[in-house]
Amino acid sequence: MARAAVSGRLAARLRWQAAALVERREESPTARTLVFDLPGWAGHLPGQHVDVRLTAEDGYSTQRSYSIASAPDADRVELTVQRVPDGEVSPYLADDLRVGDAVEIRGPVGGWFVWRPEQAEPVLLVAGGSGVVPLMSMIRVRDMIGSRVPFRLLYSVRDPADRLYGPELDRGAPGLDTTWVYTRGTPDGWTRPAGRLTPDDLVRWGWPADFEPTCYVCGPTGFVEAAAGMLVALGHHPDRIRTERFGPSGG
């Protein structure tokens, strides 16, 4: 009976649901946050993602996975979509989808790359580009519940124009420290030279390994592999490093 109940619940949570766009916000020149109304949404854990399916009038259908950016909020889900050059789905979502239009959403998906509010250890978030999206959900949930767990975010982007959630992160929250790492161009007066994330950055702005933080690393595959390797070399236990990576998928 218990197994049947669990199977039924999982099947219900992973069904496709109609979702209407109710709001869209510009995050950067190439990224938009899309707010969907999703009646009967079962909720999600920070770090999970959903599948989004588009179906054309001729019956052609395609789908992509997108991380959830928001904290749980009744029947609404926020996704931040970065336009992929020559992509099939992301340009439509970022540029053409209008308030009132509908898509299909299935989820939430994932149980490893999540932060649970009952975790008491320090948290290190390491993001490359749009890899900040699921980490932003963790930050927002922490703020929503008034958690005192200390968070540190190292966010690597090419230049200031590529920052997602810039004003929100600049405002900060008690117990959240954010450090920007620019790889190509820096703001005026920025002391760190432009360049890729380094072990020195992780030492200076991350947590010491003996604090036993849980580390969440998300971004392009090369970035994630490099950052995770640095963390291991600095003494962080591999079991405390959780990674989520993305690469070319047709956009």
TrEMBL record:
InterPro entries to which the protein is assigned, alphabetical: Cbr1-like_FAD-bd_dom, FAD-bd_FR_type, Flavoprot_Pyr_Nucl_cyt_Rdtase, FNR_nucleotide-bd, MRET, OxRdtase_FAD/NAD-bd, Riboflavin_synthase-like_b-brl
Cofactors named for this entry: FAD
Residues in FAD-binding FR-type domain copies: 14-115
Protein name, per record: Flavodoxin reductases (Ferredoxin-NADPH reductases) family 1
Gene3D superfamilies: Nucleotide-binding domain of ferredoxin-NADP reductase (FNR) module (3.40.50.80), Translation factors (2.40.30.10)
UniProt keyword annotation of Thylakoid present: no
GO molecular function, one term: 2 iron, 2 sulfur cluster binding
Swiss-Prot/TrEMBL keywords: 2Fe-2S, Iron, Iron-sulfur, Metal-binding
